[in-house]
Amino acid sequence: MKTKLFFLSIIFLPMMATAQLKPFDYNDGQQALSGFGIKPKKELDGKPAVLILPAWMGIDEHSKETATKLAALGYYAFVADIYGKDSRPKNTSEAGQKAGFFKNNFTEYQNRIQLALAQLIKLGANPDKVVVMGYCFGGTGAIEAARGNLKVQGAVSFHGGLGKEPTRATDKITLKVLVLHGADDPFVPKAEIENFQTEMRNSGAVRK
């Protein structure tokens, strides 16, 4: 009997650990959104938090797993819904179109990030101790959070798109920015990398 209970605990304890990750419904006007939030069982001092921006296919298991792992470390975490509850891409073609829209309409992207940030704060996170991070399309969003000077302490981009329209103004960036980008990434031209580096220097994000 004890052996049986032991194996049952091995099966169900991981499920209990992820049970804290819950869906949270919110709205952008008439557009219904639904992200995922999680509270740490043992929070760190100051209630720090991480806002997670998913890759181009939208909320997936990877982004939810990241939130769960962050909660295990003591952070509040929230996975943002950028596309909308009834507007999730069904394939990569749709994902490219939807991601392209937000890349070209950066104020819409920044707004969706801000709405998710508000949900993270409602969850109990300290509004003065939040970092936003994202992968690929989400990494682009993290950079847009920095460009828009959203109220976060820092932005972390993992192989996100770096480019912006040449006619777009370069504003001062006050938060900390970490961009992790492969030197031989075939999807981002060298000129785009160099322009981004210049942008970060001119914005004050690169501190000497």
What can you see in these coordinates?
There is one protein chain. The protein has 208 residues and is an alpha/beta fold. Helices cover 40% and strands 19% of the residues. The protein has 6 helices and 7 strands. Strands 1-2-4-3-5-6-7 form a 7-stranded mixed sheet, sandwiched between helices. Strand 1 and strand 2 form a beta hairpin. The longest helix is centred in the first third of the chain and has 17 residues. The chain is globular, with a radius of gyration of 18 Å.
Produce the secondary structure layout.
Blueprint: H1 2-18, E1 22-28, E2 31-38, E3 49-53, H2 61-72, E4 76-79, H3 92-104, H4 106-122, E5 130-135, H5 137-147, E6 154-158, E7 176-180, H6 190-203
Parallel strand pairs: 3-4, 3-5, 5-6, 6-7
Antiparallel strand pairs: 1-2, 2-4
Helix pairs in contact: 3-4
List keywords for this structure.
40% helix; 19% strand; 7 strands; alpha/beta
Shape: globular
Largest sheet report: 7 strands, mixed
Overall mean pLDDT score? 90
Instruction: Tell me the number of strands.
Output: 7
| Integer-rounded radius of gyration | 18 Å
* Helix fraction by DSSP (H/I, runs of at least 4): 40-55%
Q: What order do the SSEs take from the amino end to the carboxyl end, as H and E? A: HEEEHEHHEHEEH
